[in-house]
Amino acid sequence: MFETVTPPEPDKIIRLMGMFAADPRPDKVDLGVGVYRSPDGRTPVMAAVKAAERGIWERQETKGYVSLSGDPGYLDAMRRLILGDAVPAARVAACGTPGGTGAVRQVLETVRRLRPEATVWISDPTWPNHPAIIDHLGQARRTYRYYDPETGGLDRDGMLADLAEAKAGDLILLHGCCHNPTGADLTRADWQAVADLCARTGAIPFVDTAYQGFGDGIEADAAGVRLLAATLPEVLIAASCSKNFGLYRERVGAVLIMTDAKAAADGVLAGMNRQNYAFPPDHGARVVQDILSDAGLEAQWRAELDEMRTVMQGNRAALAAALREATGSDRFGYLGAHRGMFSLIGARPEQVDILRETHGIYLVGDGRMNVAGLTPGVIPRVARALAEVLA
Ligand code: PLP
Ligand code: TYF
């Protein structure tokens, strides 16, 4: 069956992980894959997660199946975390998924089935799994302008001009916050403009939210998606708990769908889970549910998340300052304005190669940097290398 097959292009981010692991240089610096690191370079299990896991170990009496959509308590906790009280629970259908990627896949496959003629609009650039999954399913896609490399900010006019061509029923894929890979986010006014555009054209927003709490805080990072959800008839959400709960390998995600046809949508989502993997993973979802339903654990988790965000913002400020000193210019000042783990630093692929080969500094080929991979000790060296290679 496989003799004549050409395997698909490997994921460039995952390939970079392998290259980093194989590099014997002791002073190599991983600014590639999107994983949080504390100032001592670790990706720790959060203390609130450990506590919740201890409680599960002590109290869980069965590992029997739960339900095709996952535990209703988990789904309700995710709805409250992401949507607050922006929409009544009676308008939100949901299912658990293996990670945020699983949620993206379930939403897109649902659209493939129900709206095969729809075009999915993705930002240029976006997370590579978005076009990969859309193409795998055979759905049409188009890109909209998003990032202005001159300012390091959003190309608002380009975005709205391109999206004005969206047709009723098309999907507009947006990042809830902490845009991957650019680090440039929509302001409240930009979200409002997108909501107005969707209301006018009948296009449906599809919000991928994988970094809630990494930008400006839990509530602030959800403001955009809440605005859309409160004003539009139909909104699709794919959510991930990989980053904000540090549960990467447990695969915790969820689909939330705002609709007036909740019962039908719930049935479609459960059926989609059944066809693809039946029951979604439970352990990580239960950890999230237990944290969000216990005031003490939730407060502990929020404090840990605040600390992670503070570390990343500190790394941004320190790198921007070191680059100001190394280049004598404010060319990289936008790094401080970006949000989340990622920024595009404007490196061409051959410059990314030099940074990796000569300096042991690993960035994704498009020049994406994971600022969480910086530690105070390496920032001066990274700044000098960037100033030299990007001069
Ligand atoms: N969407 C975006 C934009 C991401 O960057 C990620 C990566 O974390 C995900 C979704 C989902 O990741 P996971 O499948 O690990 O939850
Ligand atoms: O963009 C990142 O680095 C994270 C992790 O296929 C990731 O979102 C990378 C590639 C992938 C799945 C997750």
TrEMBL record:
<keyword id="KW-0808">Transferase</keyword>
<dbReference type="GO" id="GO:0030170">
    <property type="term" value="F:pyridoxal phosphate binding"/>
</dbReference>
<keyword id="KW-0032">Aminotransferase</keyword>
<dbReference type="InterPro" id="IPR015421">
    <property type="entry name" value="PyrdxlP-dep_Trfase_major"/>
</dbReference>
<dbReference type="InterPro" id="IPR015422">
    <property type="entry name" value="PyrdxlP-dep_Trfase_small"/>
</dbReference>
<dbReference type="GO" id="GO:0005829">
    <property type="term" value="C:cytosol"/>
</dbReference>
<dbReference type="GO" id="GO:0033585">
    <property type="term" value="P:L-phenylalanine biosynthetic process from chorismate via phenylpyruvate"/>
</dbReference>
<protein>
    <recommendedName>
        <fullName>Aminotransferase</fullName>
        <ecNumber>2.6.1.-</ecNumber>
    </recommendedName>
</protein>
<dbReference type="GO" id="GO:0004838">
    <property type="term" value="F:L-tyrosine-2-oxoglutarate transaminase activity"/>
</dbReference>
<comment type="similarity">
    <text>Belongs to the class-I pyridoxal-phosphate-dependent aminotransferase family.</text>
</comment>
<feature type="domain" description="Aminotransferase class I/classII large">
    <location>
        <begin position="27"/>
        <end position="386"/>
    </location>
</feature>
<dbReference type="GO" id="GO:0042802">
    <property type="term" value="F:identical protein binding"/>
</dbReference>
<dbReference type="InterPro" id="IPR000796">
    <property type="entry name" value="Asp_trans"/>
</dbReference>
<dbReference type="InterPro" id="IPR004839">
    <property type="entry name" value="Aminotransferase_I/II_large"/>
</dbReference>
<dbReference type="InterPro" id="IPR004838">
    <property type="entry name" value="NHTrfase_class1_PyrdxlP-BS"/>
</dbReference>
<dbReference type="Pfam" id="PF00155">
    <property type="entry name" value="Aminotran_1_2"/>
</dbReference>
<keyword id="KW-0663">Pyridoxal phosphate</keyword>
<dbReference type="GO" id="GO:0004069">
    <property type="term" value="F:L-aspartate:2-oxoglutarate aminotransferase activity"/>
</dbReference>
<comment type="subunit">
    <text>Homodimer.</text>
</comment>
<dbReference type="InterPro" id="IPR015424">
    <property type="entry name" value="PyrdxlP-dep_Trfase"/>
</dbReference>
